[in-house]
TrEMBL record:
Organism: Silurus meridionalis
Domain SET as annotated: residue spans: 7-241
UniProt keyword terms in alphabetical order: Chromatin regulator, Cytoplasm, Metal-binding, Methyltransferase, Nucleus, S-adenosyl-L-methionine, Transcription, Transcription regulation, Transferase, Zinc, Zinc-finger
Alphabetized Pfam families for the sequence: SET, zf-MYND
Protein name as it appears in the record: [histone H3]-lysine(4) N-trimethyltransferase
Length: 451
């Protein structure tokens, strides 16, 4: 099969950035720039039974695989469509039982190996960039990342050696590095994790902290939509990271995960940093820079501690609000950590400071897990407006917060406030997902049912 590129886009050599994508025609805000099917993908194990393994449809009454009894499908057609990939795991899951626990990255890489053996021509996911052209940055990987790659390599051998012709360790190590740098997390409308995938053409886009496109998902496919007007000849930029944080944090994340220094307008002007790092005005004396930096270090350490203390597992519904959390520490203990951290940081930072917002977001998640809807609502109401200031105009983070709030309001019988919040979510989602996306239709249905 010959791939003929993407209408309206072309691959080019971006000055100072290497390969990139630029527009060959005008795109208005909300236009679909291009769509890309996944080259390979895998549903996260925590969503099994809630989503179809093949098409990622969320529905009740899915049918499970008769052999492993762990994979679920919409119907026979979806099961047949997934068999070329699922059969790799099906036998292994039956053999290992409860001891079958490869990471999501290992599962994805195993599927890529299978795909590469049977797919010799470029796919519809590789119209501008082939998966084999992915950058691995092997020369920049530190000892910690190298150890992670070695652990993944060992796990792939352990769980798949009986069912897969595994390439050499050098080839495998490079493939893991490529996937770690170029892989994507598929998320739903509330930004809950659904699975992992590789989209080569999407990966070709370079990063900006003021992106002109946004990537969303429809089933297992990625869609790239314009969030700014784009003219012919302009480079198309996506964002690789969460844009809530100040320039120093973003720079550190990009350097650590993607091995480059961003020189976009937002990073050079730091225009939002003052608002994101706002300090209390009514202090006895202005804090010294060292005091502020010390509090930032404290905030980062607490964020890391909290990240390690929780992971995704269970689903708790409240009027279509999906909370996917499980804790290695008691939820009450984590909520206490959040509250104590907010109290300490609040002695210096205002509530709109991004580190305060981050901890409030974590507290909101714990409250949802504990089914403390009023507590969750209290935090969500404090978060949503600062989010709309700190994030770009059509941010999924803002949309998901309005969506969470709207569904909380609805569940608490505050229908007028719920409809207003859901409408604000839809206003953003119409641009980011497109007006015809099934997520938009689902939310409109929720609103109609409450009127």
């Amino acid at each position: 099969m010959k791939c003929e590129g993407i209408e309206g886009c072309e691959r080019f050599l971006s000055p100072g950035k290497g390969r990139g994508v630029r527009a060959t025609k005008h795109f208005e805000v909300g236009d679909l720039v291009f769509a890309c099917p996944a080259y390979c993908y895998v549903l996260t194990v925590n969503e099994r039974g809630a989503h179809c393994e093949f098409c990622f449809t969320r529905r009740e009454g899915l049918s499970k695989c008769g052999k492993c009894k762990q994979a679920y499908y919409c119907n026979v057609e979806c099961q047949k469509g997934d068999w070329s990939m699922h059969k790799l795991e099906c036998s292994a899951m039956c053999s290992y039982g409860e001891n079958w626990c490869p990471s999501e990255t290992v599962r994805l890489v195993a599927r890529i190996i299978v795909k590469q053996k049977v797919q010799t021509e470029p796919t519809q996911s590789e119209r501008l960039l082939s998966l084999k052209e992915f950058e691995s940055h092997m020369d920049k990987i530190d000892n910690e990342k190298n150890e992670m790659n070695q652990t993944d390599t060992a796990a792939l051998h352990h769980f798949y050696s009986k069912y897969l012709d595994i390439p050499s360790n050098d080839v495998l190590t490079e493939l893991f590095a490529q996937v770690n740098c170029n892989g994507f997390t598929i998320e739903d409308e509330e930004l809950s994790h659904l699975g992992s995938a590789v989209f080569p053409d999407v990966a070709l886009m370079n990063h900006s902290c003021s992106p002109n496109v946004i990537v969303t998902y429809k089933g297992t496919g990625a869609e790239v939509r314009a969030v700014q007007k784009i003219s012919p000849g302009e480079e198309i930029f996506n964002s690789y990271i969460d844009l809530l944080y100040p320039t120093e944090d973003r720079m550190e994340r990009l350097k650590d995960s993607y091995f480059f220094t961003c020189d976009c307008t937002e990073c050079t002007t730091k225009s939002k940093d003052k608002a994101k790092m706002e300090i209390r005005q009514k202090l006895s004396a202005p804090p010294e820079p060292e005091e502020v930096q010390k509090m930032v270090v404290y905030a980062r350490n607490v964020i890391e501690e909290f990240r390690r203390a929780k992971h995704y597992k269970n689903i708790l519904p409240i009027h279509f609000l999906f909370v996917v959390l499980d804790f290695t520490a008691p939820p009450s203990e984590l909520l206490e950590i959040c509250e104590l951290s907010l109290e300490k940081m609040g002695s210096l930072f205002v509530e709109t400071n991004v580190y305060m917002l981050h901890m409030m977001y974590q507290a909101m998640g714990v409250c949802l897990y504990m089914q403390d809807w009023d507590g969750a609502l209290k935090y969500g109401e404090k978060i949503v407006h600062p989010y709309s200031v700190h994030y770009p105009q059509y941010s999924l983070n803002v949309a998901s917060m309005y969506l969470k709030l709207g569904r909380l309001y609805m569940g608490l019988e505050k229908k007028t406030q719920g409809v207003k919040a859901l409408q604000k979510a839809i206003d953003i989602m119409n641009i980011a997902f497109g007006k015809e996306h099934h997520y938009v239709a689902e939310i409109k249905k929720e609103m109609d049912e409450c009127e």
